[in-house]
Amino acid sequence: MIFSRQIAFWGEKKQLRLQKSTIFIAGIGGLGCLLSEILVRSGIGKVYLCDNGIIEKPDLNRQIFYTQKDIGKRKVDIATKRLSEIHSFTEIVPVGVNIKDKNFILPSDISGVADCLDNFESRFVLWDKLPRNKFYVHAGVERFYGQVVTLIKGSSPTLRDIFSNYKVLEGPIPVCAHSVSVISSIAATEVVKNIFNEPVLLNRMLVIDLSDFTFIKLDVK
């Protein structure tokens, strides 16, 4: 059985929870590629892949689904193909839209959201669209730094409250595969922990600096 190694330690009941869950993954770039692969290999029943981007050469240093032959193609198309080749257990739904589009809505069947976006304007729109009581796992990365936090719509501080002093960076965000891999793995684990009703980072932001391997947790208000 595909999932026998993980069922051996977290059990069939939790695996069934994963099977019955649906996750909306916003952003299929560096963070979203690895996070979505981990969730599919974990046995999530359904994932939405949301991204309207086109694959470009600078993406290849960290976005693990894409190769030189994919340059110029839609990210959601290639990501859907790659994930579908892993197994047929997970339903994969590509959503090739811009979250900031005024007609964007979240699907009604989601269990929660994984925010793998690269700008706060889109993140704030995504948060505003999130139904009450649904979980929102935010992941962000820059250079050797990154952060992950779980918020619950209606009971946690809002995303705007937490990132009220964010600054818009000019030009491409400096980033490498090392920090992307660590942050996306932790975020994927936190999504699974939310499905198990065991979030570790609920209203607590894990901040990581890989330049000296610093890991700290900060309460968010």
Question: What's a quick, concise take on this entry?
Answer:
The chain is of the alpha/beta class and 221 residues long. Helix content is 33%, strand content 21%.
Please, how many helices? 6
Question: How many β-strand stretches?
Answer: 8
What's the domain count? 1
User: What's the SSE pattern?
Assistant: HEHEHEEHEEHHEE
CATH superfamily membership: NAD(P)-binding Rossmann-like Domain
**What CATH architecture would you give?**
3-Layer(aba) Sandwich
Query: What sort of overall outline do the alpha carbons produce when their principal axes are compared?
Result: globular
Q: What is the strand content?
A: 15-25%
Helix content: 25-40%
Task: Enumerate the strands of the largest sheet in spatial order, edge to edge or round the barrel.
Answer: 3-2-1-4-5-6-7-8
Show unreliable segments: none
Radius of gyration: 16 Å
How would you sum up the major sheet? 8 strands, mixed
Annotated CATH topology: Rossmann fold
Instruction: Give the overall pLDDT as a whole number.
Output: 96
CA(first)-CA(last) distance: 43 Å
| CATH class identity | Alpha Beta
Which class do the helix and strand fractions yield? alpha/beta
